[in-house]
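Consider the following input, taken from an annotated entry for Large ribosomal subunit protein uL5 (Candidatus Woesebacteria bacterium RBG_16_42_24).
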Amino acid sequence: MGTKKQRLQEKYEGVVAPALAKEFGIKNKMAIPKLTKIVVNVGIGEIAKSKESMETARRDIAVVTGQMPSVRPAKISVATFNVRSGMPVGLAVTLRGEKMYAFLDKLISIVLPRFRDFRGVSGRSFDVSGNYTLGIYEHTVFPEIDLTKAHALKGFEITIVGTAGNPKKGKKLLELLGMPFEKNST
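Applying the prediction step yields:
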């Protein structure tokens, strides 16, 4: 990896971390909430039956995230969905460091504003540890995806994992990084 720091990473170190330390009265700089990884999950459904479609889907996700996804097999068999244990059911990517900040910067500044009638993301999608999960229904909002060659991916689940410890600190961390939350979300 290069030594060039991402814009969002510099913002975290110079502005966000000191603001979080001041607001929450954190004296130890290691205790300041920070991002650790971003996990992108994609369900592949019927795509798994065609090797060519599967490779196209993997390439699309690799182009969007900057990293080749791993294929996730089913852990159990479910007869109603025609899924057998070991069958590919999803693709996943775990981003850390520079790639994580680059993906989050692209998500906040380019992808989310491209949605029609976008008024912000929900502030209710935090878990008890302050991690945030966001669902994107259409992967074609990413600028790298060529609409003429776009594949039938169902959507993304993006989980932003950090060390916040609770939803209040997690939300404040993402707000300071620029995540556009709805005005009326709690």
